[in-house]
Amino acid sequence: MTPDLILPLLMRWTHIGSAIVAVGGSVFLFFVMRPALSGALNAESRADFESRIMKRWKLLFHPLILLFLVSGFYNFFVVTAPVHKGQGEYHMLFGIKFLLALVMFGSGIIATSTKKWSEKMRDGNLIWWVLLASSAATVMVGGVMKLLPQAAAN
Asked: Distance (Å, rounded) from C-alpha 21 to C-alpha 64?
């Protein structure tokens, strides 16, 4: 492997690894941990335990957002944009993917928040569904982008 391929490869792994941990962790919290807590603990104990979990989870989730952004912008500007130059469809999909990722990041921040401002938004499951749906849509758009052919060399 040549040295000029090491950084792009590391950035790709960082981007995919961040997605796996952030989305996988969120799926676990929503479909496994939260339902298990509802039947096992009283409301006060559940709220305390969930708050403790979210405080720890956001210590991982928030840096994952930074890793997503840094690796994603590197991958776009250095690796993929040059080989898709002039392809409006590719750049349109990148814009859609980026907006979906912002929804994913925002809903993830709200879902993991323990602050008073986010209380009403965390009531019920809507914020989790927004997080999971935007995550899935982001991955799907990325998959379509990956399948688009590269621009013809001029």
From this structure: 8
The DSSP letter of residue 124 is S
Q: Looking at the predicted structure, is the pLDDT value of residue 114 above 90?
A: no
Supply 7's token pair.
């950084």
Residue 39: CB partners within 8 Å, gap ≥ 6? none
Residues in CB range of 96: below 8 A, 6 or more apart? 141
Residue 154 has pLDDT above 60, yes or no: no
Statement: the pTM of the whole predicted model exceeds 0.85 = yes
In terms of phi and psi (left: phi > 0; alpha: psi -120 to 50; beta: otherwise), the region of 119 is alpha
Judge contact between 61 and 24, C-beta under 8 A. Answer: no
What is the model's pLDDT at position 51?
85
Helical packing angle, 43-74 and 88-112, nearest 10°: 150
SS3 16: helix
